[in-house]
Amino acid sequence: MTELSNRTKRPLLEVDHLHTSFHTFDGVVKAVNDVSFAMNTRETLGIVGESGSGKSVTALSIMRLLKSPPARIEKGRILFDSIDLLEISMSRMRDIRGNRISMIFQEPMTSLNPLFSVGNQMSEMFVRHQGLTRREAWNRSVEMLEKVQIPSPGKRAREFPHHMSGGMRQRVMIAMALACDPEILIADEPTTALDVTIQAQVVDLMMKLRKDYGAAILMITHDLGVIAEIARRVIVMYAGQVVEEADVISIFEEPRHPYTRSLLKSIPKLGDASTHGRKRLQEIKGIVPSLADLPAGCHFYPRCPHADPICRQGEIALEEPAVGHRVRCIRHAGL
Amino acid sequence: MFAFIIRRILQFIPTVIGISFIMFVLLNVLPGSAALMTGGKEILSPEIVKKLEKKWGLDKPFHVRYLNYMVGLAKGDLGTSFIRGDKVRDIIGNRLWPTLKLAVAALAIACFIGIPLGFYSAVKQGTWVDTVTMVGAVSGVSMPQFWSALLLMYLFSVVLRWLPTFGYGNGDLKNLILPAVTLGIGYMALLARTTRAAVVEVLSQDYIRTAHAKGLSVLFINGKHVFRNTMVLILTTIGMQFGSLMGETVVVETVFSWPGIGSLMVDSIFLRDTPVTQGCIMLIIFVFMSVNLSVDILYSVVDPRIRYD
Ligand SMILES: Nc1ncnc2c1ncn2[C@@H]1O[C@H](COP(=O)(O)OP(=O)(O)OP(=O)(O)O)[C@@H](O)[C@H]1O
Ligand SMILES: [Mg+2]
User: Fold this and answer.
1) Distance CA A317, CA A304 (A)
2) Does residue A298 lie within any of the structural domains?
3) Is residue A131 part of a domain?
4) Which of chain B's ends, N or C, has fewer CB atoms near its CB within 10 Å?
5) CA separation for the pair A34, A38 (Å, rounded)
């Protein structure tokens, strides 16, 4: 009983001052620069940020899927159920992968092996983690395909990835990821490569499955619409750092970081169009700084409308101006 | 699938017609004649030469001879040797087994050593094992066969006296080793390099990352996912190179006095025994085409994206 209450108090996943870089010929690319966040059981946490802000690298660091070299996790801890994932052996990590923490990827078209049937590839999960026979594993795979609403799953299981559309393959990936009933599902832009209508279906499916399976979901996306729909709390990343973290409502209603504000202004709103006629969307001026040569102080400084010389003096700390609302900007109070 | 195989076999026909024509032209412009060679050191009188040429049909114009040959070929008749008077089919039949033995042994050496070597060095990318293998592979590819044959002979036959220098023996394994290694070494080196490149490519694919994300072991991933995809990439090389290997038997068999098709062909060229030369070329072409067809069939077995219908 005490152990159970302990479990519920501690977050399920804690990323603690994670630093991940790539050692390339052009220098050290600091892709993830002091990222910390925590995730509770059954919680859905969103990570948003522009392309190149380090979202995938964060996720891949958690899974320890980065190829080293060139990647190196320089500092930090990743605590999952009191296990430091960065300390354990690779074979223990492989017991966790797919079993307790699963991941689905951005590229459904290339994420499945073209030479093996979908059922075969799904079966591997059950054989590997639950020790089922191939026959049992196959039957479980067919059940999983049914759960992700693939019609005639028995027939589909025998098909190969090239017989399926992108949306269908992403469903297969989701089914595979949920096969062993993981505690955490990391979804790295699962809908980015799909048609808009299919995107909505996949998001709906994930929301439904979240209820059935009770996995915590780390939803990575640059689509704020998806975040609004699925996540309770959001992390905004910029140039390898967490610049803001809050619950979804606060992020949308009272964003504190200038970057988050610009991000929100860059998405179209239905209301704007009807009341003011055609209003131009605001783009964020400038480009993301090179991660191999980051500016001193605030990483957003070069593009920030409120930039001030003091923003460049030393590292900016993550402050917590309101409970559960963290922001990495020294001028946020005066804005 | 069956229709595909039939169609492909029918496609052999125009290939055979085309190649036999080129072959016929080339052998026709070759100076000298079989009639002159039959006498050995003796110089035959022009009358006898005329008579022999008439007997073999060499007095007829080029197109008539070509047509006659093609008609014979259609009936499965490769003609009769000028020099020996035997049926070409029988002569080749006697020489076929040694060549096949040699080619298959070379293929086995290349596949069973070259592919694992390339695989291993790709998996150990950048380590000294990788470097040594690849340096070896590059020198293996660039070494001419008569040269590696001489080196091997010198080392294993002359210095160590382990293996016979040349000859078929009674078909003993120890006679096979040196020629097979000589023939297979370049092929092996090439396969090692091709395999390495293929594995490196496969390892960077998204589906391999997926396999790791599923928690599968490295051994399992390499043995199943990487291996199968690598095979798809190297199958063509295996097939094409087996074809060239048949051609290379000419050099190796001659160096080692191996009684196969290759040395038969060289001898027949020197004797101007054109029917035999033509027979050997046709056989090599046939093996080449059959191997390519088998590779294509194998593709449809390994890769579900390929369907023939
Ligand atoms: N293998 C690598 N070598 C060098 N740099 C890399 C490598 N992988 C990623 N990076 C760098 O790390 C940074 C963060 O990349 P990441 O893939 O995490 O971005 P992201 O936020 O997921 O973007 P996207 O929305 O495009 O997926 C990028 O600037 C990228 O250039
Ligand atoms: Mg990404």
Assistant:
1) 17
2) yes
3) no
4) C
5) 14
For residue B71 the two structure tokens come to 């008609």
Q: What is the pLDDT of residues A201-248, one digit of tens each?
A: 888 888 888 888 889 999 999 888 888 888 899 999 999 999 999 999
Give, for ligand 1, the residue of A47, A56, A65, A191 to mutate: max count of ligand atoms closer than 8 Å to Cβ: A56
Closest atom of ligand 1 to CA, residue A50:
25
The residue ranking higher by pLDDT, B29 or A204, is A204
CB-CB under 8 Å, B214 with A111: no
> How many distinct structural domains can be found in chain A?
1
Look at chain A and count its residues: 335
pLDDT at A183 over 90: yes
Query: Is this structure's pTM higher than 0.95?
Result: no
The continuous run of DSSP H or E covering B146 comes out as helix B145-152
- When scoring A56, A113, A130, A186 by the number of chain B Cβ atoms within 10 A, the one with the most, hence best to mutate, is A113
Is A287 within the bounds of a domain? Answer: yes
Each residue's pLDDT tens digit, B270-293: 888 888 888 898 888 888 888 888
Interacting residues of B184 by C-beta distance below 8 A, sequence separation 6+: B105, B106, B107, B108, B109, B110
What are the structural domains of chain B? 2-74 (no CATH), 93-302 (1.10.3720.10)
Q: What is the DSSP letter of B261?
A: H
